[in-house]
Amino acid sequence: MPPGNNSANFRLRAGLFALAATLVALDRITKIVVASAMPLYDSKPIIAGFFDLVHTRNTGIAFSMLDDAGPLVKNILIPLFSLAAVGLVVYLLWKSGPATRRMQFGLTLVLAGAAGNLYDRFAYGYVVDFLDFYVGRYHWPAFNVADSCITVGAGLLLLDSMLSGTREPRREPESA
Description:
The longest helix is centred in the first third of the chain and has 33 residues, at 5-37. By secondary structure, this protein is of the alpha+beta class. The chain has one domain. Strand 1 and strand 2 form a beta hairpin. A 4-stranded antiparallel sheet has the order 1-2-3-4. It has helices at residues 5-37, 71-95, 101-124, 145-164, and strands at 43-47, 51-58, 127-135, 138-139.
């Protein structure tokens, strides 16, 4: 390794973790503002026929899946799975090499989103959702900043996976 490479890698990782912390803070702030400014289940049109701010609570997982599950799933399995996912993402992010910037950024976004929603699950037992996109009567399930981070991060990881399969493998120099 070139001299200083470990220091550069540490600074890069520290920057990625700082970005994740900033995104978690943005997620927390937006949820607090919505929860304090809007009554539960209230809706405020932003772009008529396309986008509203709403105040909902999601006790399930992404896009309200498992919202009708029992207490064992909601109070124990979902938080444990979320905690394990955060741990796995931290491990993968820490172990990733410097040549995988797209992957690192994707993992950072997934980490921020998972941590933001995990905080809500442990603190309140639900996640505040407030972004409601729709066309006519067809609504995308309400979501939040953390969900956006997870979705974009997963998309980047998928893109990185597809593009990394198209790269030529590195060849080691042949010895004479």
